[in-house]
Specification:
Strand order of the largest sheet: 1-3-2
Radius of gyration: 29 Å
Number of domains: 4
Number of helices: 30
Low-confidence stretches: 1-43, 345-386, 682-693
Length: 693
């Protein structure tokens, strides 16, 4: 989400992290932990951020040194435009009275008095700008924390456009960055030069692509102003012309074809169809030329009979997992398949207790039978650019689909062997869990689940799809350790797996998307090269930081995310990586310093409590498979079976059946964990401790 500036802090970070790094550029010798103390904090210009921003403490700490150096300046070198913009950012702090809190009153007063001199210097520079010396502005460092946005703010503030003309401003804009937001955030320019801005928008592909993303991508863009005379029909005509161009971007075509109304703009069905056909045409053309290569993956799960070899194979496009028939059969004979799922990989979740965003099933690989293998997909960039999703689409990207395939084939392997050899099923174990095990383990009675007796996958799938809502109702109605059947009998509305209550106070901490935390996580873990900033910190390779990374590291230390202690940072980065991947953590699992840090993040507004059975991302995961509440690319299994809108193909029902079994296993894992925390708290789970605790 864009807040204070047109490109978020994290976006700047993403463009800088890992640039130019390769295996050869990483030093082989470790840098001592105390080397982090030697990171040069003097480099990097000052940028204004409000007190609510995590970078604020870092930058206000630099201001006294900056002003002292400015006052002691003996070199008469003329200030360049970046110096002037830095003055502007410093002046903003001073005008708000923002200085380090430990300063003496006399010092504060002395520093605050300098804001006037800074403002006068800024004004004198922009007052002197005309068509003859406008080139000095082109030296603005557009890549440094939105200095280009500050420049255009100052251009408008000091009426430079009225002296040089809008076409000169447009030329300057093209030379500096050419970012549509840079112009469209200037309301006065858009209003006063309506005709010129409108012509630019309608003739420049950058603006068409920006508007497509503005209306239909997930990224929310704030503070944008469009010419009043650009009407709906004009925008649609722009989109239509763009679709017909020789080389429109594939992601833009996808946004149009899959769009849902946003900001009052709705794409007509004929235009959606045109975009879809054009997309298919271009993808087909690129396949023929070899520019697009279909990435195919084969997932093979095999049960090896006694005496067979258990070697597993994997490689580009191929995953093979082999299991001992003896071990598999022992689980089936003891009706322990579901218990195996819950015990060994905890409902396909990671150590944080949540489903991952892109790879929803993080499963350890200690041996062949105790765990499902986790295959981390490393996609080439050529495969990624087609995997962009609109504002109402679920991210069922290639990595997600491969991981799902791995899990589904494991469930299918168990189910087929159970039926063929023992006339048993995972569905019957699900029934046993709800009808007996919950009462035995947690003293919660009254759950009812009726397994299907049909041999057709259509009826078995229908039974699972409809009853998952019943399970949600029953869980929601628990009162005094008993499912409240009276409450159930009076409830007729549909129950979604959204905001189902948890019986644990402060069950999860989740990333607050309107806070600084998403930016912090992007800075640490996004990769624009081979290594993220977090990778370099964990490996002790601080000597490999580029100048931007040095700044980011110092900011993160200043705001308390990191310390100058490598051992602490490794632990913290592991915790933050889970937040980056999952979006939430199971709060009761943490103790000591880690719990204190989570509490501090909540107090800062970076994390928020969620007292529910599922995390927000997990709710989206179930919604994608079951209903049409959140995503327009949903499978809608619950809805299709409830309303008899499913396909008649028995093979499709068989596939749906396996998917539904997976959803039940995951849901049971979440219910089981919730009840364990709620009723047996402290008896069965070990708290995750910080090494220093």
């Amino acid at each position: 989400m864009l807040k204070e500036y047109p490109r978020p802090f994290a976006q700047q970070a993403a463009s800088a992290l890992g640039v130019g790094f390769s295996v050869l550029s990483i030093k082989t010798s470790s840098v001592p932990s105390n080397a982090m103390n030697e990171v040069d904090q003097k480099n990097g210009r000052i940028k204004y951020f409000p007190p609510s921003h995590f970078a604020y403490p870092f930058y206000i700490a630099k201001i006294p040194m900056f002003l002292d150096a400015l006052g002691d300046k003996t070199c008469k070198k003329e200030d360049d435009i970046n110096d002037i913009i830095e003055y502007y950012n410093v002046a903003r702090y001073l005008e708000e009275g923002y200085l380090p809190p430990k300063l003496e009153e006399e010092e504060r007063s002395r520093y605050l008095k300098q804001k006037g001199a800074l403002r006068r210097r800024i004004k004198s520079i922009f007052d002197s700008v005309d068509t003859d010396n406008l080139s000095i502005l082109e030296k603005c460092d557009a890549g440094y924390f939105n200095y280009d946005d500050d420049l255009f703010f100052l251009l408008v503030k000091y009426d430079v456009d009225k002296k040089v003309g809008i076409q000169t401003i447009i030329k300057l804009w093209e030379n500096i960055s050419g970012s549509p937001q840079l112009l469209l955030r200037r309301k006065r320019l858009v209003d006063e030069y309506d005709s010129a801005i409108r012509k630019l928008i309608t003739t420049n592909n950058k603006f068409v692509e920006f508007l497509i993303q503005y209306y239909f991508s997930r990224e929310k863009v704030e503070g944008i102003h469009l010419p009043l005379k650009i009407y709906r029909d004009a925008i649609l005509n722009m989109f239509k012309s763009y679709i017909k161009q020789d080389s429109p971007k594939l992601d833009c075509l996808r946004y149009i074809s899959e769009s849902v109304p946003r900001y009052g703009l709705e794409i007509p069905s004929e235009l959606k169809t045109l975009a879809k056909n054009r997309y298919d045409e271009l993808v087909g053309r690129e396949r023929l030329t070899g520019n697009i290569i279909d990435v195919a993956f084969c997932v093979k799960i095999e049960v090896v009979e006694n005496g067979g070899k258990l070697e597993e194979k994997d490689g580009p496009g191929y995953i093979e997992c082999k299991y001992s028939a003896e071990s598999i059969d022992l689980l089936i004979e003891k009706d322990a398949v579901l218990a195996f799922f819950l015990r060994n990989f905890y409902g396909f979740v990671d150590d944080s207790g949540g489903i991952k965003d892109v790879c929803p099933f993080a499963i350890e690989t200690d041996d062949h039978i105790s765990c499902l293998p986790f295959f981390e997909l490393d996609l080439p960039i050529e495969c990624v650019f087609l995997e962009k999703f609109g504002n109402r689409e679920y991210d069922n990207n290639l990595t997600f689909r491969v991981q799902n395939e791995i899990v589904l084939k494991h469930i299918k392997m168990f189910e087929e062997r159970m039926m063929r050899k023992y006339n048993k099923s995972i569905e019957k174990e699900i029934s046993l869990y709800f009808n007996e095990k919950i009462k035995e383990k947690y003293g919660v009675g009254g759950f009812i689940f009726e397994p299907s007796t049909s041999r057709t996958y259509r009826e078995r799938s229908m039974n699972l799809a409809i009853q998952i809502e019943s399970i949600a109702r029953q869980f929601k109605s628990i009162k005094d350790n008993e499912v409240n059947q009276e409450l159930l009998s009076n409830c007729s509305s549909q129950v979604y797996l959204t905001n189902l209550p948890s019986y644990v106070k402060h069950k999860y901490v989740e990333v607050n998307n309107d806070s600084a935390m998403p930016e912090i996580l992007e800075i640490l873990f996004s990769k624009n090269g081979r290594y993220s900033l977090a990778d370099l910190i964990q490996e002790g390779e601080c000597g490999c930081f580029n100048e931007q990374q040095k700044t980011y590291y110092c900011i993160l230390v200043e705001c308390g995310i990191l310390l100058k202690d490598r051992k602490h940072n490794i632990v913290m980065l592991d915790l933050l990586k889970q937040l980056y991947q999952v979006g939430a953590l199971t709060y009761p699992r943490y103790a000591g310093l880690l719990k204190e840090r989570l509490d501090a993040f909540v107090d800062q507004g970076w994390l928020s409590w969620k007292d529910s059975l599922l995390t927000t991302k997990e709710e989206g995961f179930f919604s994608f498979y079951l209903d049409a509440k959140q995503f327009n690319n949903n499978l809608g299994l619950r809805n299709s079976y409830a309303h008899y809108t499913f396909k008649k193909d028995e093979g499709a029902h068989r596939k749906n059946y396996i998917i539904l079994l997976m959803l039940y296993v995951i849901l049971i894992s979440k219910i089981d964990a919730d009840l364990a925390w709620g009723f047996l708290r402290g008896n069965s789970e070990k708290l995750i401790q910080h090494p220093q605790t």
